[in-house]
Amino acid sequence: MADSIKVLLVDDHQVVRRGLRTFLEVQDDIEVVGEAADGAEGVARAEELKPDVVLMDVKMPGMDGIEALRKLRALANPAKVLIVTSFTEQRTVVPALRAGAAGYVYKDVDPEALAGAIRSVHAGHVLLQPEVAGVLLSQDDAGGGQGRSTSLTEREREVLGLIADGRSNREIARALVLSEKTVKTHVSNILMKLDLADRTQAALWAVRHGLTD
Fold first, then answer.
1. pTM summary value
2. What are phi and psi of 7, to 5 degrees?
3. What are phi and psi of 5, to 5 degrees?
């Protein structure tokens, strides 16, 4: 299991956690390393267990999923957080993405699609549905960096466009015939120059400024 994706389940309903664990544990490349019943416990377990991906419910007693996300970011925890929400909670997706979520899935997601989403965010993709992107892009504070595109090199603009297309660093490296280390350097430079926190904000910035097809 050394190469498996380590997943932490954070949900206040035990039956939900049990169902998720039952399904995910039959996946050859996914290992459930722990569970938590609320945001505070989720943060503590994420620091202890160092999962690759945290599957996080939004509405929980005490510390909710969005506040837990902010705590993980403040702690510089590298885990990718995949938010679990419902259609009726769509308004919570925007603050969750702003807080650092790598994407989100709905609570009635097909099990295979859930496993695919976990693999996707682990690979560095940003899961952003069109309707949510539209909400984010319609708001003035959808991400920093406005007016700074001229500070990017042509290569950085190419990398940024591929980030917006949902490409991982490995895929960007292949597309541009670069090493992954070089791509990581470009990504770091982009975030610094545009004053952005993460790949999600970078993807939104690229869409907003017409760097995607």
1. 0.70
2. -120, 135
3. -85, 120
**Quick check: 94 and 136 in contact, CB under 8 A?**
yes
**Cα separation values, 64 from 7, 84, 93, Å:** 19, 12, 13
Taking each helix axis from N to C terminus, what angle separates 130-137 and 199-208, rounded to the nearest 10 degrees? 70
Question: What pLDDT, in 10s, does the model give residues 31-41?
Answer: 999 999 999 99
Per-residue b/e over 4-14, b at no fewer than 16 CB within 10 Å? ebbbbbbbbee
69-85 per-position pLDDT tens digit = 999 988 989 899 999 88
Rounded Cα–Cα distance for residues 8 and 10 (Å): 6
Pairing of strands 53-57, 80-85: parallel
Structure tokens at 72: 């993980």
Structure tokens of 178? 């670069």
Based on the number of CB atoms within 10 Å of its own CB, is 67 exposed (0-12), middle (13-18) or buried (19 or more)? middle
Q: How far apart are CA 108 and CA 172, in angstroms?
A: 32
Degrees to nearest 5, angle at CA 59 with 106 and 65: 90
What's the rounded Cα separation, in Å, for the pair 21 and 99?
Answer: 26
State whether residue 213 is helix, strand or coil: coil
